[in-house]
Design brief:
The protein is of the alpha/beta class. Helix content is about 30%, strand content about 20%. The chain has a seven-stranded parallel sheet with strand order 3-2-1-4-5-7-6, sandwiched between helices. Bound molecules: NADPH dihydro-nicotinamide-adenine-dinucleotide phosphate and N-acetyl-L-glutamyl 5-phosphate. It catalyses: N-acetyl-L-glutamate 5-semialdehyde + phosphate + NADP(+) = N-acetyl-L-glutamyl 5-phosphate + NADPH + H(+).
């Protein structure tokens, strides 16, 4: 059994990890931290886990995480970088759901997140945890930088086109919508029910922290200079993400060839579903499931291709993806514990 620790077990991605890992046949939940709920049985805070998770939260300063085989950090940015060096030195694998190790360039990280990087020596060895694009490196990794939720949709939508050299890399547009759980469980006015449940707004339009992360990753797949415009929106649903990606085609290519390109790219990827041409994927078709669905459109058969992408921000956009990485790191079937079908309706 793999002994698992979770730092930040009370938050949305932390409890999503608990939900998935409680049903994972090869995992023993060993330590789950909370600074505020030290000693509280997990199932008292989350009754859905009664009978499935029988341990209590421990304060991070009391728990010995070195007894774990792997530790997930479901914490705000800056927490994993403080603890990862010691854990890695003691042979414990680390999967960070925050951004501490996503951006290789320290200066770009510090400018984007406005914090100093305290473990820059680990940036090089960190593997970006997007299995569909980095599977072989993830299998060998000791430190995973789990991708951002929006960046997962943007990369899986744009990369097949960039790799094939079919689009203008200097003109990529991503119009994305997230459910409110994307902002985390902490108390904030903008995520109060009365502020967000009957409202729709863009935010971070002139610069969101996911733009440099995504642009740097997309740049790996083309020699042309990538330029990305990314506009996130907060939408009145709890879970779910819908990204509408726009790319300008630069070569003569038929709709059938474009569809085939995506079907071939994801033929062996169990957690990406390429829907029939012209479909309209819905967020609810991924709710609770480790699944990303996409579909292609080409209005008036012109030179703009639209890729519609949906996922559950907490599953394929965060905790499900992290479990997918854990499975690969420990030589397990990639889909172990991740077979849940989306909740409907
Ligand atoms: N929500 C989403 O859709 C996604 C989130 N992420 C990323 O995952 C991470 C977690 O997000 P989310 O679950 O939404 O956040 P939440 O705000 O819901 O939870 C954060 C958790 O971290 C703990 N925590 C906070 N500060 C510290 C600290 N200094 N030391 C130890 N534990 C701490 C909190 O617990 P306590 O206060 O009890 O200690 C809480 O359990 C973030 O980096 C986020 O950017 C990534 C993709 C998607
Ligand atoms: C709706 C909302 O606020 N979403 C968050 C992104 C989700 C997240 O937690 O960011 P990471 O994926 O980088 O960890 C935001 O825009 O900051």
């Amino acid at each position: 059994m793999i002994k698992v620790g979770i730092v930040g077990g009370t938050g949305y991605t932390g409890v999503e990890l608990l939900r998935l890992l409680a049903a994972h046949p090869e995992v023993e939940l060993t330590a789950i931290t909370s600074r505020k709920e030290d000693g509280l049985p997990v199932a008292e805070m989350y009754p859905s886990l009664r009978g499935r998770v029988n341990i209590a939260f421990s304060s991070p300063d009391k728990v010995d995480l070195t007894q774990c085989d792997v530790v997930f950090f479901a914490t705000p940015h800056g927490v994993a970088m403080a603890q990862a060096p010691e854990l890695l030195a003691k042979g414990v694998k680390v999967i960070d759901l925050a951004a501490d190790f996503r951006i290789k360039d320290r200066a770009v990280f510090e400018k984007t997140y406005k914090i100093d990087h305290t473990a820059p020596e680990l940036l090089e060895q960190a593997v970006y945890g997007l299995p569909e694009l980095n599977r072989e490196d993830i299998k060998k990794a000791k430190l995973i930088a789990n991708p951002g939720c929006y960046p997962t949709t943007m990369q899986l939508g744009f990369v097949p086109l960039l790799k094939a050299g079919l689009i203008d890399a200097g003109h990529l547009i991503a119009d994305c919508k997230s459910g409110v759980s994307g902002a985390g469980r902490k108390a904030e006015i903008g995520t109060l029910f009365s502020e967000s449940s009957d409202n729709f707004k863009a935010y971070g339009v002139s610069g969101h922290r996911h733009t440099p992360e995504t642009a740097a990753q997309l740049q790996r797949y083309t020699s042309d200079k990538v330029s990305l415009i990314f506009t996130p929106h907060l939408t009145p649903m709890i879970r779910g993400m819908h990204s509408t990606l726009y790319a300008r085609l630069t070569k003569e290519v038929s709709n059938e060839e474009l569809q085939q390109l995506f079907e071939d790219a994801y033929a062996d990827q169990p957690f990406v579903d390429v829907m029939p041409w012209g479909s309209h994927p819905e967020t609810r078709s991924t709710r609770g499931a480790n699944m990303l669905r996409l579909a292609l459109h080409r209005p008036n058969n012109g030179d703009t291709l639209i890729v519609l992408v949906v996922q559950d921000n907490l599953v394929k956009g965060a905790s499900g993806q992290a479990v997918q990485c854990m499975n690969l790191m420990f030589g397990l079937d990639e889909g172990l514990g991740l077979q849940t079908i989306a909740l409907m309706p």
